[in-house]
Design goal:
The chain has 282 residues and is α/β, with parallel strands linked by helices. The chain folds into two domains: 157 residues, P-loop containing nucleotide triphosphate hydrolases (Rossmann fold), CATH 3.40.50.300; 115 residues, no CATH class. The protein contains ten helices and nine strands. The strands form two sheets. The protein has a five-stranded parallel beta sheet with strand order 2-3-1-4-5, covered by helices on one side. Strands 7-8-6-9 form a four-stranded parallel beta sheet, with helices on one face. It is globular and about 60 Å long. The two termini are 37 Å apart. InterPro entries: P-loop_NTPase, RapZ-like, RapZ-like_N, RapZ_C. Keywords: ATP-binding, GTP-binding, Nucleotide-binding.
């Protein structure tokens, strides 16, 4: 049985994530009262019709005590049912904009609790779930299509005995990805942006590839990052980590970080079956 708990803050895209899993053949359950979780799992765990199941656990059906949820997780371990917790989050200002655009009411907002206060309170209540999540997805810069693609390609097809490695480039001037497990700063490398003939290219273009690959500092940085990931990924796997997100950052997220991320993707695709690539700023 492949069991996925989808959680996260309201407005972060949980409904879209569940729809994507449903399109992939998952039996999806939304807004189930928390006390009924164990009864439900007892009823479906031995049925092939529910081999792939996704359950939403959020502020609507979660009392915040974590006692009942912990009992559910312990019961699953005793039944040797493997499960994963996927937590969706987003920047607070982005969530405010999404609620203002949709004109929907936040589950915790009231006459005495403003929208922003409700968003902050929700994050506090869901904090333990966030800290124990197998995969945290920051949807701040994602479109609905990008989120659904991630759920299809990285979550729905993930094999429980494999590690899913996401390598993403980003620009520090736009902010640091909050879903990073490992982060490397490559701003010390020669910057193609200051070469007039290279400025309008990206780290995917051969002109920039030739420029950066000719620099000894680039080779040294790439070797060090590759060696670090190779050394510690098996240890993350042994500790039960199914997903690892590696973020590579430069100033604008278009040249150096893109080149390094591309090289890492090429290298680790020969070692792991689930290696994904994302260029946040391209």
């Amino acid at each position: 049985m492949k069991l996925i708990f989808v959680s996260g803050r309201s407005g972060s895209g949980k409904s879209s994530a569940l729809h994507a899993l449903e399109d992939c053949g998952f039996y999806c359950i939304d807004n189930l009262p928390e006390p009924l979780l164990l009864n439900l799992l007892d009823a479906i765990s031995n049925s092939s019709a529910y081999e792939n199941t996704a359950i939403s656990v959020d502020i609507r059906n979660f009392d915040g005590s974590h006692e009942q949820l912990n009992k559910t997780f312990e019961a699953l371990k005793k039944k040797t049912i493997e499960y994963q917790v996927i937590f969706l989050d987003s920047d607070e200002d982005i969530i405010v904009k999404r609620y203002n655009a949709s004109r929907r009411k936040h589950p915790l907002s009231s006459d005495s609790c403003s929208l922003r206060e409700a968003i902050q309170l929700e994050r506090k209540i869901l904090g333990p779930l966030l800290n124990n999540a197998d995969l945290v997805v920051d949807t701040s810069t994602m479109s609905v299509h990008e989120l659904r693609s991630l759920m299809r390609n990285r979550v729905a097809t993930h094999k429980t005995n494999e590690v899913s490695l996401l390598i993403q480039s980003f620009g520090f001037k736009y902010g640091v990805p909050s879903d990073s497990d490992l982060m490397f700063d490559v701003r010390c490398l020669p910057n193609p942006y200051w070469e007039p003939t290279l400025r309008n290219f990206t780290g995917r273009d051969q002109e920039v590839v030739d420029f950066l690959s000719a620099q000894q500092t680039t080779k040294d940085m790439l070797d060090d990052i590759t060696r670090f990931i190779e050394t510690w990924t098996p240890h993350y796997q042994k500790s039960g980590r199914a997903y690892i997100t590696v973020s590579i950052g430069c100033t604008g997220g278009c040249h150096r970080s893109v080149y390094i991320a591309e090289q890492l993707k090429q290298h680790f695709s020969a070692k792991y079956s689930e290696v994904h690539l994302k260029h946040t700023q391209l």
